[in-house]
């Protein structure tokens, strides 16, 4: 029997009787990170990295039964040894290492290799079998260096200010928005945000993260306050009445999908920035190689292409269908 199995509820460890990121309610769920496609409501017990605990409670409710453990800490379920290791995807994100009788599997969740300055950076974990995401598993997706990208975003903001426009930037409220705030805080004088952004931001500031406090936009915020401001909004606010109040403004979209120019046109954006919390093509290949795994399961994203490429390189690689998605396209503003 496989140490981890793909079932209609999620990734299941039969020997330890737990699921990793289940998409249907189960008794015991091990959660890689707090994004809504990986951490769902309805499980009886949650286990996650300790920094994810307040984020899970914010998203799923304060009364959930959740236990947080530190990176590298061992916990045992029916003799199965489980530990969590940094994934670099966002605050509290983790890879799940599972070991029984010397056999080691790692379920990566979502990950990126470049340090963003706020999440604990990705650490490869040696294993026999590696379950990897493949959100951007095509060779066209190769990210430019982070500092270079943020320089372009900053210059775009300055150009908008010279034109007397607000700069509205859409970014997922949990993860990417914090990267923007961290890197822009010393470069702009006024940042404001949608409630979905400020709720997460205020929680993380209370947890001790070095993020700037930003003003929450309310129906009472005067229009004059928006001139030349930087406004961070979730993707769901795009082309909404909430956003139209900022006129005149320029819209910038932060998403890995902006690597393909057609996506920017479809979003009616004035600027597109390929800022992603997922590994690009080279990052995926580097991560797989660093594990030393001889068997790889590719999940959500361009999984068939990525698995086929790995197979051509001599690995036992397979595509697996899961219910995970891409938070960059999720439209619920409360997540």
Automatic annotation (TrEMBL):
InterPro entries named in the record: MBL, RibonucZ/Hydroxyglut_hydro, Xnuc_lig_assoc
Enzyme kind, highest EC tier: hydrolase
Upper classification of the organism: Bacteria, Pseudomonadati, Bacteroidota, Chitinophagia, Chitinophagales
Protein name stated in the entry: Ligase-associated DNA damage response exonuclease
Organism: Chitinophaga fulva
Enzyme Commission no: 3.1.-.-
GO molecular function, one term: RNA endonuclease activity
Keyword list, A-Z: Exonuclease, Hydrolase, Ligase, Nuclease
């Amino acid at each position: 029997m496989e140490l981890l199995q793909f079932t209609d509820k999620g990734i299941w460890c039969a020997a330890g009787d737990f699921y990793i990121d289940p998409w249907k309610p189960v008794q015991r769920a091990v959660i890689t990170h707090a994004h809504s496609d990986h951490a769902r409501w309805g499980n009886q017990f949650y286990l996650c990295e300790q920094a994810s605990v307040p984020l899970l409670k914010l998203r799923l409710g304060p009364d959930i039964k959740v236990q947080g453990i530190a990176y590298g800490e061992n916990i045992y379920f029916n003799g199965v040894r489980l530990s969590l290791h940094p994934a670099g995807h966002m605050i509290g994100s983790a890879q799940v290492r599972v070991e029984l009788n010397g056999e080691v599997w790692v379920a990566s969740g979502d990950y990126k290799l470049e340090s963003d300055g706020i999440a604990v950076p990705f650490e490869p974990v040696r294993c026999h079998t590696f379950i990897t995401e493949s959100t951007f598993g095509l060779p066209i997706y190769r990210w430019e260096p982070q500092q270079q990208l943020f320089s372009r975003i900053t210059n775009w903001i300055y150009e908008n200010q010279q034109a007397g426009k607000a700069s509205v930037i859409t970014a997922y409220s949990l993860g990417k928005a914090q990267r923007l705030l961290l890197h822009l805080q010393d470069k702009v004088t006024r940042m404001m945000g949608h409630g979905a952004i400020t709720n997460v931001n205020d929680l993380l500031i209370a947890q001790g993260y070095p993020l700037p406090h930003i003003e929450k936009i309310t129906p009472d915020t005067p229009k004059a306050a928006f001139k030349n401001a930087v406004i961070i909004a979730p993707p769901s606010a795009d082309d909404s009445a909430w956003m139209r109040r900022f006129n005149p403004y320029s819209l910038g979209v932060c998403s890995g999908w902006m690597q393909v120019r057609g996506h920017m046109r479809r979003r009616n954006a004035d600027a597109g920035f390929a800022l992603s919390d997922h590994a690009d093509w080279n990052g995926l290949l580097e991560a797989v190689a660093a594990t030393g795994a001889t068997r790889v399961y590719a999940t959500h994203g361009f999984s068939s292409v990525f698995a086929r490429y790995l197979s051509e390189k001599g690995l036992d690689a397979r595509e697996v269908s899961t219910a995970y998605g891409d938070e960059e396209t999720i439209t619920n503003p409360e997540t």
